[in-house]
């Protein structure tokens, strides 16, 4: 089995199962992951993790990449990584990366595609592709919006390894906690998501995705439209009414 999927209490947990190789991703794992983020209406959030505590995802499988024999085969392989990231970004609910240990290369691109990232304090981050003769590609393009252009150049050109504290200060992850508290911190976020309106959370994720692509005026108008559509359901009235009742 290349991944594990467990659904419970409105949360889908997706785990990469390749602990012996630092959860590096190969074609079978990538193909399984690409289908793991299609969720039903009962799902409120998805958690993506790696098996064990040594790595979140330690990159793409070096042996498989070393066997690539043509530019066409290279494009096919990297498109499989992109397909996973596209599935994460298209997932209608928030996807949270639970990051422990190594988060490298394709693993960092996958983490960047997630909506939120929480890391243990022993996590390590890097984009080492140039050290093996390759550029960092596909969802590495998300990094400038997360950490800025200068830090993106530093991360990709120098191939430095960042510790968790630096990753948090750069904005590469949203929260760092002691490794033993990682699941508790994750549960805090899941609790907050569970308290929100399920339709509102889905609408908010979709709107944030549109903001990434639109100019300011169009992004504001998209927000106006999204706000209006929210009242096509009873969720705002019901939740606003409950809030006012508590205040009374």
Write the layout of secondary structure elements.
Blueprint: E1 3-8, E2 11-16, H1 27-34, E3 45-50, E4 55-57, H2 62-66, H3 71-90, E5 95-99, E6 102-104, H4 106-113, E7 116-120, E8 124-126, H5 143-147, H6 149-158, E9 161-163, H7 164-170, E10 175-177, H8 182-195, H9 198-211, H10 216-230, H11 235-247
Parallel strand pairs: 2-3, 3-5, 4-6, 5-7, 6-8, 7-10
Antiparallel strand pairs: 1-2, 8-9
- CATH topology (fold) name of the largest domain: 2-enoyl-CoA Hydratase, Chain A, domain 1
Q: Assign the CATH class of the largest domain.
A: Alpha Beta
Order of helix and strand elements from N to C terminus: EEHEEHHEEHEEHHEHEHHHH
Beta-strand proportion: 15-25%
- Poorly predicted regions are none
Any idea what the radius of gyration is?
19 Å
Overall geometry comes to globular
CATH homologous superfamily descriptor of the largest domain: 2-enoyl-CoA Hydratase, Chain A, domain 1
Largest sheet: 6 strands, mixed
Count of discrete domains:
2
The order of strands across the largest sheet is 1-2-3-5-7-10
Task: Give the strand tally.
Answer: 10
- Structural class given helices, strands, pairing? alpha/beta
Q: Name the CATH architecture of the largest domain.
A: Alpha-Beta Complex
């Amino acid at each position: 089995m290349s991944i594990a999927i467990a659904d419970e209490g409105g949360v889908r947990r997706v785990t990469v199962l390749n602990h012996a190789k630092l959860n590096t991703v190969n074609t079978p794992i990538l193909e399984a992951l690409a289908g793991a983020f299609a969720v039903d209406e009962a799902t409120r959030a998805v958690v993506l993790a790696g098996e064990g505590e040594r790595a979140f995802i330690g990159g793409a499988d070096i042996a498989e990449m070393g066997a690539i024999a043509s530019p066409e085969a290279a494009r096919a392989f990297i498109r499989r990584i992109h397909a996973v990231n596209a599935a994460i970004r298209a997932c209608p609910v928030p996807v949270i990366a639970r990051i422990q240990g190594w988060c490298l290369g394709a693993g960092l691109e996958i983490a960047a595609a997630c909506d939120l990232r929480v890391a243990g304090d022993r996590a390590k981050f890097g984009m080492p592709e140039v050290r093996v003769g390759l550029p960092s590609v596909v969802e590495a393009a998300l990094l400038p919006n997360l950490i800025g252009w200068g830090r993106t150049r530093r991360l990709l050109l120098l191939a430095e390894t960042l510790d968790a504290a630096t990753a948090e200060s750069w904005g590469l992850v949203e929260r760092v906690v002691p490794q033993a508290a990682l699941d508790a911190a994750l549960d805090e976020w899941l609790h907050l998501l569970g308290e929100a309106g399920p339709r509102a959370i889905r609408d908010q994720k979709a709107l944030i995705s549109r903001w990434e692509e639109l100019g300011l005026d169009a992004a504001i108008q998209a927000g106006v439209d999204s706000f209006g559509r929210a009242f096509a359901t009873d969720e705002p009235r019901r939740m606003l009414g409950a809030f006012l009742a508590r205040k009374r």
